[in-house]
Amino acid sequence: MEYELPMIRQSQINVRAGLTFSTGLRSILRQDPDIIFVGEIRDAETLEMSVRAALTGHLVFSTLHTNDSAGAVPRMVDLGVEPFLLSSSLIAVLAQRLVRRICSGCKALAQPDPELLKKAGLAERAGNLTFYEGKGCQACRNTGFRGRLGIFEVFAVTPAIARVIQERGDSATLRRLAQREGMRTMFEDGLRKVLAGLTTLEEVAREALSS
User: Fold this and answer.
1) pTM for the full model?
2) Which of 30-39, 81-90, 103-112 is predicted least confidently?
3) How confident is residue 210, by pLDDT bands cut at 50, 70 and 90?
């Protein structure tokens, strides 16, 4: 489904006609937009154009395939952008994954596996926490789940993180620093939704515990 919005202009990529992400972005910049959304950064040329647009006062949104939010930085450096340019242009990276939502029609108390509680760092306080699961009903076709919800983490580029980017710090270093500066990881965000009764610990662990 597409929407017509005032002051919004959209260009569809057509590689056979010569309209690629990079050529399209170059054409869009001639129109002097305030905000640019690049569907996906796939190559060095598109990334370079996006960074240049950001450095010249445009607010640029795009997507990039990485394992987590901090991993976007070395990924873009690998694509060829200079770290000092990236540290000056990057504001934040939002990472997200989808987990299944517990069916409200058959939601019931649950007790997660002790090994999973231990792996999640919850074993010592599990007795004070409440967990839920879906037992399965007609509404959810006996799956125990109905719908999905997102779990997120926001990697904000602070002055300290910008310095590490300039020094070509790896994703693990950047992630640890972001957590020290207050970043809530996807697993932590997912755990909040587990304890709110929206999804299960198993769902969140499968999608985010290893990241």
Assistant:
1) 0.83
2) 30-39
3) low
- Compute φ and ψ for 8, nearest 5 degrees: -110, 130
Find the mean pLDDT for residues 120-147: 93
Residues 92, 93, 94, CA angle at the centre, nearest 5°?
Answer: 120
- All residues at 6 or more sequence positions from 192 whose CB lies less than 8 Å from its CB, including other chains: none
> Three-class SS of residue 121?
coil
Contact 25, 50 (CB under 8 A): yes
Lowest average pLDDT, out of 2-16, 30-44, 109-123, 195-209, goes to 2-16
Confirm if 114 and 123 have CB atoms less than 8 A apart: yes
Q: Scanning the structure block, which residue is given the tokens 């450096």?
A: 77
Q: Is the Cα torsion angle 189, 191, 196, 200 positive or negative in sign?
A: positive
Write down the residue that tokens 């957590």 correspond to.
179
b/e burial code for range 57-69 (CB count within 10 A of at least 16 → b): ebebebebebebb
Strand 145-156 relative to strand 35-38, pairing = unpaired
